């Protein structure tokens, strides 16, 4: 599933769009003891308009992440299609359209038994249909040639209990302390998934798209235990792993200029190919060439290439996951942020055995906390 496919689904996931329709929706509340407190399967057309709008908003958020960060596509291992395995459970649920009560029960039990979640939560599962029109070579729709893409989208939303605070009591015409419990379901899911993926404008039942609100801290239990897939590094983990590779391989040659240059070159590469359907990745050969262009010796660059190839194990890291918008230096309570076009103004020096960070102040105006500093 690439950016183009994802954008097409996002575009039509609206209450007012008649091409993408939510047929039915399953809702349930699961408490902190993993006990299901309530559940229902309803025809979406019968849901009150106000509630329908909130459900659309919640489910649509599952598609609003960035590929490679908040949205990660996973392939099902072959054994996951066996009976009662995750891929098989999803397929049966999709085929039965949430109508088979026993199948729904089995699927929800699978989630509640295997997902690690610290709060009570609400689970929403929607059965959707998107009418896909074929397009000619000019990108124009053929209204006489269409097919249906059936899919499931699920959202996991935390439920918080609120007992504190003040309320206005109309009967007493006064402001008093709230005394009853409110269990508030967040409309922003922390996790979710789409099955099957919409690949090449059609279904791919061998892949599932996982959504996380926190790309730096994904819920691994959903990926591995609920969906039965092999977890890959998150965006933040890719960055940390890449840093560790360079630190180990480049060693003492990893100075300020090299770090800034590597960051800038990967940023430029990511920007150049940002409109490509698939997020651009950094290959092991690119790691070597970027380091060589940044002034690293041949031996160290080739060591980094080999170590990165072994670490990535064929799953090269996404370019945009490896960069920082600014070069940031921190030492002894002092932090200096440098934008990409100003890294050449900062150098390191050793004077009389003391190390210094030198900033060229060729600009006549220097501000500190918004004040113009007198030189």
Q: How far is it from the N-terminal to the C-terminal residue, by CA?
A: 56 Å
State the order of secondary-structure elements, H for helix, E for strand. Answer: HEEHEHHEEEEEEEEEHHHHHEEEEEE
- The share of residues in helices is 25-40%
The overall strand count is 18
Low-confidence stretches: none
The coarse overall form would be globular
> Any idea how many domains?
3
Q: Mean of residue pLDDT?
A: 88
* Secondary-structure-derived class: alpha+beta
**Main beta sheet strand tally, sense and closure:** 8 strands, antiparallel
Strand content: 25-35%
Number of helices, counting only DSSP H or I runs of 4 residues or more: 9
Rg calc: 26 Å
Overview of the structural elements:
The chain is an alpha+beta fold. The chain has 3 domains: 3-231, no CATH class; 236-324; 327-372, no CATH class. 30% of the residues lie in helices and 31% in strands. The chain is built from 9 helices and 18 strands. The strands form 6 sheets. Strands 1, 2, 3, 4, 5, 8, 9 and 12 form an 8-stranded antiparallel beta sheet that branches. A two-stranded antiparallel ribbon has the order 6-7. The protein has a two-stranded antiparallel ribbon with strand order 10-11. A hairpin with a 2-residue loop joins strand 15 (346-351) and strand 16 (354-359). The longest helix is centred in the last third of the chain and has 17 residues, at 256-272. The mean pLDDT is 88.
């Amino acid at each position: 599933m690439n950016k183009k496919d994802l954008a097409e689904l996002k575009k039509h996931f609206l209450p007012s769009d008649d091409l993408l329709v939510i047929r039915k929706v399953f809702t349930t509340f699961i408490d902190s003891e993993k006990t299901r407190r309530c559940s229902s399967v309803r025809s979406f057309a019968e849901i009150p308009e106000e509630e329908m709008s909130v459900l659309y908003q919640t489910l649509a958020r599952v598609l609003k992440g960035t590929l490679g960060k908040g949205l990660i596509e996973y392939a099902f291992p072959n054994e996951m299609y066996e009976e009662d395995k995750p891929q098989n459970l999803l397929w049966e649920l999709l085929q039965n359209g949430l109508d088979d009560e026993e199948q729904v029960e089995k699927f929800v039990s699978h989630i509640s038994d295997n997902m690690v979640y610290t709060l009570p939560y609400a689970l929403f599962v929607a059965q959707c249909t998107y009418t896909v029109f074929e397009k000619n070579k000019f990108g124009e729709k053929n209204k006489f040639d269409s097919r249906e893409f059936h899919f499931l989208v699920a959202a996991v939303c935390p439920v918080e209990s609120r007992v504190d605070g003040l309320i206005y009591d109309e009967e007493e015409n006064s402001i008093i302390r709230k005394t009853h419990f409110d269990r508030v379901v967040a409309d922003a899911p922390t996790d979710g998934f789409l099955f099957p993926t919409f690949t090449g404008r059609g279904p791919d039942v061998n892949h599932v798209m996982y959504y996380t609100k926190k790309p730096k801290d994904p819920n691994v239990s959903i990926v591995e235990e609920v969906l039965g897939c092999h977890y890959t590094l998150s965006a933040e983990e890719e960055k940390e792993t890449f840093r560790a590779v360079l630190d180990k391989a480049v060693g003492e040659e990893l100075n300020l200029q090299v770090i800034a240059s590597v960051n800038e070159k990967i940023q430029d590469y990511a920007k150049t190919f940002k409109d490509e359907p698939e997020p651009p990745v950094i290959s092991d050969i690119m790691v070597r060439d970027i380091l060589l262009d940044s002034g690293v010796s041949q031996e160290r660059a080739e060591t980094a290439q080999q170590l990165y190839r072994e670490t990535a194990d064929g799953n090269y890291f996404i370019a945009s996951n490896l960069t920082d918008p600014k070069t940031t230096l921190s030492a002894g309570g002092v932090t200096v942020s440098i934008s990409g076009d100003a890294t050449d103004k900062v150098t390191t020096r050793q004077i009389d055995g003391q190390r210094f960070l030198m900033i060229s102040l060729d600009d006549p105006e220097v501000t500190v906390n918004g004040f113009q500093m007198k030189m």
